[in-house]
Backbone:
């Protein structure tokens, strides 16, 4: 069981950051849905609900999402259902149930860099940036590659463009954690192939993405590129599947996602 | 720590521990309709409404409910009874352990979705597990209750 000694709900982001940095075991709370599974000892918990970070805004060139926005709001958002072929709503729609998705937040998921995340895989296939209070704004890919640093993720920004996208995953049961997930997107022949739940975190298969951008998209070529993505990335074994199984599934899901993107309008 | 919430339309104050979850707080105050089935956030038995949205009370820290409007099945008894009668008539209830959470989710769905399809109903109810009925009776009952047969 985790322990939590004190909780504060600051009214400004500066105040939240100062409290966070006061002691090593001070921690920002997200939805807290996964907190119960661990044995973390938190000194002062910093709860962000008074910072007005629960929103999805269409800002013209980009879509801005506050860190405290729950997954359910992503799922039913008209903005996200009308853009990127509904990629983001699709990616979160099988995460346990509606009641769970009303709790888990965008900020906590992205900041925690969960390996099993469906949402991060989908975000990475788009042109996404994250904003951290101290470290500032950076691409999601850069953030995921950086080592953990104590900070507060405040917002994410998704470039609003004509990217066509598709999401696929394999689960033992519909509301279980994914064994593997894949998101593929394309804009002006600039393709991105992203594979997550490997069970390591989501990664862009860069060589395969580049190859896809440069080759004729015949069925044979797409199949070869899907194989290339599976070779390029590393996979691991856990209770949901072996590395070999994941690699085999990767080829199928990538091929399927590419074919779906080609059919997107 | 102290929290103030509106519980079934009444303002109440609770003394809670930092690592206490809302389901435990509410059960300690006599709301025994809130069941704890899985303890891993996947069964939906502990569903209550927080500001009108169905939420797992077993996974929400009690302190995060501060200032919120909480509705348990005790707060929607009339509607719950109405649906429960349909559940019974369709043979969709056996041990009844999951019924309060299930009913809270169905009533939330009724408020949220307009004339849902069978697929939408199943999707909305994915987070409610029942180990007795096999779900077909529940689906019949929900469709009948919503008038989407």
Residues:
């Amino acid at each position: 069981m985790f322990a939590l000694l004190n909780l504060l709900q600051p009214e400004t982001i500066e105040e939240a950051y100062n409290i966070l940095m006061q002691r090593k075991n001070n921690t920002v709370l997200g939805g807290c849905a996964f907190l119960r599974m661990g044995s973390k000892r938190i000194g002062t918990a910093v709860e962000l609900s008074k910072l007005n970070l629960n929103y999805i805004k269409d800002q013209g060139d980009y879509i801005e999402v506050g860190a405290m926005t729950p997954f359910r709001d992503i799922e039913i958002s008209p903005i996200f259902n009308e853009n990127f072929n509904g990629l983001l709503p699709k990616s979160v729609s099988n995460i346990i149930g509606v009641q769970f998705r009303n709790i888990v937040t965008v900020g906590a998921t992205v900041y925690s860099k969960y390996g099993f995340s469906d949402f991060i895989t989908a975000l990475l296939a788009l042109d996404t940036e994250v904003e951290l209070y101290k470290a500032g704004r950076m691409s999601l890919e850069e953030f995921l590659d950086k080592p953990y640093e104590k900070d507060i993720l405040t917002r994410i920004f998704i470039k609003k463009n004509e990217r066509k996208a598709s999401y696929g995953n394999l689960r033992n049961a519909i509301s279980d954690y994914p064994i593997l997930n894949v998101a593929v997107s394309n804009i002006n022949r600039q393709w991105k192939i992203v594979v997550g739940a490997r069970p390591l975190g989501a990664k862009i298969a860069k060589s395969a993405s580049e190859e896809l951008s440069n080759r004729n998209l015949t069925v044979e070529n797409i199949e070869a590129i899907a194989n290339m993505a599976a070779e390029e990335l590393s996979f691991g074994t856990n209770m949901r599947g072996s590395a070999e199984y994941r690699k085999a599934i990767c080829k199928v899901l990538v091929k399927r996602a590419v074919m779906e993107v080609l059919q997107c309008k | 720590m102290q929290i103030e919430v509106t519980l079934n339309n009444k303002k109440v104050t609770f003394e809670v521990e930092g690592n206490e979850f809302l389901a435990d707080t509410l059960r300690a105050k006599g709301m025994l309709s809130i069941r704890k089935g899985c303890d891993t956030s996947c069964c939906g038995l502990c569903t209550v409404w927080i500001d009108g949205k169905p939420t797992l009370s077993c996974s929400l820290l009690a302190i995060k409910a501060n200032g919120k409007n909480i509705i348990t099945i005790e707060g929607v008894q009339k509607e719950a009874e109405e649906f429960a009668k349909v559940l019974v008539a369709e043979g969709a209830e056996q041990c009844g352990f999951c019924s309060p959470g299930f009913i809270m989710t169905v009533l939330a769905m009724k408020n949220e979705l307009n004339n849902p399809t069978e697929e939408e109903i199943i999707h909305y109810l994915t987070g409610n597990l029942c180990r007795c009925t096999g779900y077909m009776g529940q689906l019949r009952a929900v469709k009948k209750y919503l008038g989407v047969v």
